[in-house]
Predict the 3D structure of the following.
Amino acid sequence: MENREENLQELLVEFGLAHKRVEELQAREKKLSQELEASRINEARYRQIVQNANSIIMLMDTRGNIRFLNQFAQRFFGFYEKDVLGLNIVGTIVAKTDLSGNDLTQMIKDITSNPELHSVNENENIRSSGERVRILWTNKAIIDSSGAIKEILCIGNEVAKPSQKR
């Protein structure tokens, strides 16, 4: 009989420990769920900011291929993102040379290989209509976990001519 009471006591202790562990797991699940919801809200907020900014926001890889264009950039350049994703910016939004004969292909190679040396630059760009426009760009390298450049974040604004009204 005594052995049976000892077993019952051990089972009650184990049940209490298991119950406590379940409560801990439920609390952890609730916390993770709240963190996930906060992350979703933050992502939606950032997406709204990026998409509604009145600036060109673009991501390009280290070869100069377009990885992202915000809605403003799509309207400004006259391209749908789906039509230019994966394409090189030279030949889409950047001509091979500007009207002065400067090699823009080399400039893009310089930016993608050393974005910190080209954190701000101004160059001629081209819209889908063929219209040439000057853009002031700010470039920032996006680094991966190993420290290598993964992408370049490019934010641009048109440089208006003194007589130009927008």
In short: DSSP finds four helices and five strands in the chain. The chain has two domains: 1-52, 54-158.
